Amino acid sequence: MYTNKHATRLAQQTLQAGQMVNDINRWKSDLEWFSTFDIEEANSKLGHAKRAVQVVSNRLAEHKNKIESSQQRLTELKEIAGGFFSGFWRSAEQTVAHRQCPELDSLLKSLRQSAADDQVMLDAYEKDVCKLTESLLRYRGLNPLEAQATIASKSEELTRLQDTIEETHRASEHWESMAGEVLRKWKGALSELDKVERDIAQAEGFERELSSAMTSREKAMIHQRCEARFQNGRPGAVLSGLNGEQRKLQRDADKLQSRLKDIIRLLDKQIKTLIIDGNNLCYEPMEQGKGRFIGLAALKALVPHLCRNYKVTLMFDPGIRQRLSLDDFALKKMFPDANVIVMPPEIKADEGLLAAAEFDTGAYVISNDHFADYPEQPAVQENRVLKHIVHPRSVQIHQLQLNIPY
């Protein structure tokens, strides 16, 4: 309930805008790449790379065949040259084999190096073929007119979103300026209250232990623990102080929550209709509970201001006609933007005010009456009655954060 929804929405919108900027930049980058890409040169390079792949592949295959046959011949020569008596006596065939083995071994090393070099070259050409093929596919798959249209569309959408972000930012700052500090104080009060309640539970535990202790030594140890925890060794005295602190903190938290509810009602625009006790606002409070009749002065200043943001119904007791020497038509003419109702004699004004707000949860009554005889009415049960103060030069409705001069 007490959450700055604008801040959450602002974070989501900012993230969305960032993604849109990235998309636009990507499309622009693609379009710029497209304009500088030379398709003829790319096709020529691709053809050259494919031919090179074929040439090097064939050469590598030849090298591998030579390596295989040379390795097989080397194995045969080693078998011929490595007889049991070769160290003492060699036949002509062994002598030739013994001489050819180093030569063939050197040739194998050279072939293997050439094959390795060809493999590196083949990998490079194949990589070029892959890269050039991807570039050509990318080029053929990109429609520059479509890209330009997408950039224009997304740019317009981003502009609208940035306007929305600015509105959300202002709404978030407005929420924070009105409710942020009160919310933090309320949470702080709840945190302190929670701490005191934990302390109360611990002090009650000490008191229970003390009442069940059997020896003076046990009691002394409990008093010592209580002293160490609360700087007071008497659990009863600690509880008394904590209970008083709890009551104070609870009152403070309730006041802050009530204030927060009033602010949130305004911020979330939960109040849509205001039903004004007209007679109430025709009097300025004086000493000893008496009021000084000021006529319509306060209402003439207040009602037009309220009509800018709310639907307004202005209700009077029937006695207002005689008090002001005005008929119903004249009253309605003075407040053209409001719905003006003069109650019939047989209906009490309080009943009319509460009935007007009974079935509309967005309707609030402005009156200083306590409506003690109507506790069952929804407007009373749901705290949809707003108080006002008529000052000598202004009229104030604290829950609407208004103070209008008259």
Which parts are unreliable, with pLDDT below 50 for 5 consecutive residues or more?
Answer: none
H/E order of the elements? Answer: HHHHHHEEEHEHHEHEHEEEE
Helix content: 55-70%
User: Over all CA atoms, what is the radius of gyration?
Assistant: 46 Å
Distance separating the two termini: 36 Å
- The order of strands across the largest sheet is 5-4-1-6-7
The CATH class label of the largest domain is Alpha Beta
Estimate the strand proportion: 5-15%
Largest sheet: 5 strands, parallel
Q: For this entry, what is the oligomeric state of its chains? A: single chain
Short description:
It contains 11 helices and 10 strands. With 406 residues, it is of the alpha/beta class. The longest helix has 69 residues, at 144-212.
